[in-house]
Amino acid sequence: MLYLFILAILMNIFTYMFYSREVKFGQERYDKTTKKLRDSINLVSGKLAEADYFSLEHNENAQNYFDNSASGGKVILYEKLIPVVTEKLLDLNANPNGNPYTGQDKIGPNKFIINKIKILNHRWIIADYSNGELWGEVLLKYFVDNDDNITFEVNQSWLYQK
């Protein structure tokens, strides 16, 4: 009986030590993983802020350009302007000769169309275009007049080699 009692006490001690260390190990692993994830989130947030530095959404000076209320003009909300400008530029892809604001003429059977647009500020747009085989980028100027008409002008276009 004495041996059984001693064996039970030893098993209880070993079991207690095992589970207490397992909890401690699990907590340390959780803390380490949480720290890594927080660092990764901070790194990605920093990179996103860096990438969005040149965008109308984060450029207060460019946003203020559309606020003409002080001079008696009207206010253009940049939140509503961005999708309108993007849609108007992408609608020009339906042209049978391709989008005229790619700065490229039709080469072969495929037309050049704009794929992706980034509005940099109150005046500049950068866009990616392709015809399925060739790819390029274009820097555009855009203007919004008092009647909310939007016009575009190709500043510079670049077509990458195959």
Number of domains: 2
Mean pLDDT figure = 89
Strand content: 15-25%
Order of helices and strands: HHHEEEE
Count of individual beta strands = 4
Derived structural class: alpha+beta
Structure in words:
Strands 1-2-3-4 form a four-stranded antiparallel β-sheet, with helices on one face. The chain has helices at residues 2-51, 60-65, 78-91, and strands at 113-119, 124-130, 135-144, 150-159. The model has no long low-confidence stretch (mean pLDDT 89). Helix content is 43%, strand content 21%. The termini are far apart. The chain contains three helices and four strands, in the order H-H-H-E-E-E-E. It has two domains: 1-52; 60-160, no CATH class. It has 162 residues and is of the alpha+beta class.
